[in-house]
């Protein structure tokens, strides 16, 4: 950030009590911590946990994980459930938080989950998704967009699944 989000004054870097150099607005007298978007991504599994749903969107050629932005006032778990329902028409019956990574191109903190859908029925898929397809774990690893954040998340999830270390929670348990 170069300018104050409130008044537009150019920010200067100023020491902020152990936080290091933080952008500061002299006109407002306020520190302006970095602002970024927050989104979730998820590897949607079938009930047997042997298939992963990958999607294509926005006329792009590569398969990715299902993802979406967290709305104001919404927690990440609610976003996960809402986004899966909106995009592919599936209900999430269990999930587990994995990890987060920052995605610089869109200035977004991505919160990654493993989730389990109620079925493999893709007949209620929205127009927001160009294509959705269930893959085995091995196929998903081959088909996911290479050198992407989605691939990083997916490979970690597959490793965890193969090690038998997945502990999904039902949405009411969270």
Structure description:
With 174 residues, the chain is of the alpha+beta class. Helices cover 20% and strands 33% of the residues. It has three helices and nine strands, in the order E-E-E-E-E-E-H-E-E-E-H-H. The protein has helices at 76-88, 137-143, 149-162, and strands at residues 12-15, 21-25, 30-31, 37-45, 51-56, 66-69, 92-103, 108-117, 131-136. The strands form two sheets. Strands 4, 5, 6, 7, 8 and 9 form a six-stranded mixed β-sheet that branches. The longest helix has 14 residues, at 149-162. The mean pLDDT is 94.
Give a brief outline of the structure.
This protein is an alpha+beta fold. 20% of the residues lie in helices and 33% in strands. Strand 1 and strand 2 form a beta hairpin.
């Amino acid at each position: 950030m170069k300018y104050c989000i409130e008044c537009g004054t150019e920010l200067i870097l100023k020491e902020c009590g152990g936080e290091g150099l933080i952008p500061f607005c002299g006109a407002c007298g306020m520190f302006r911590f970095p602002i970024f978007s927050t989104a979730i991504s998820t590897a949607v599994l079938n009930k047997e946990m042997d298939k992963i749903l990958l999607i294509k969107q926005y006329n792009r050629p590569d398969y990715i994980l299902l993802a979406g932005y967290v709305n104001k006032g919404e927690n990440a778990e609610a976003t996960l459930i809402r986004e899966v329902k909106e995009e592919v028409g599936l209900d999430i019956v269990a999930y587990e938080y994995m990890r987060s990574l920052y995605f610089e191109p869109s200035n977004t903190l991505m919160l990654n989950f493993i989730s389990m859908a109620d079925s493999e029925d893709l007949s209620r898929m929205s127009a927001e998704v160009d294509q959705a397809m269930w893959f085995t774990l091995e196929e998903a690893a081959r088909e996911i967009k290479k050198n992407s954040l989605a691939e990083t998340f997916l490979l970690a999830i597959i490793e965890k699944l193969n090690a038998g270390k997945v502990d999904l929670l039902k949405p009411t348990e969270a």
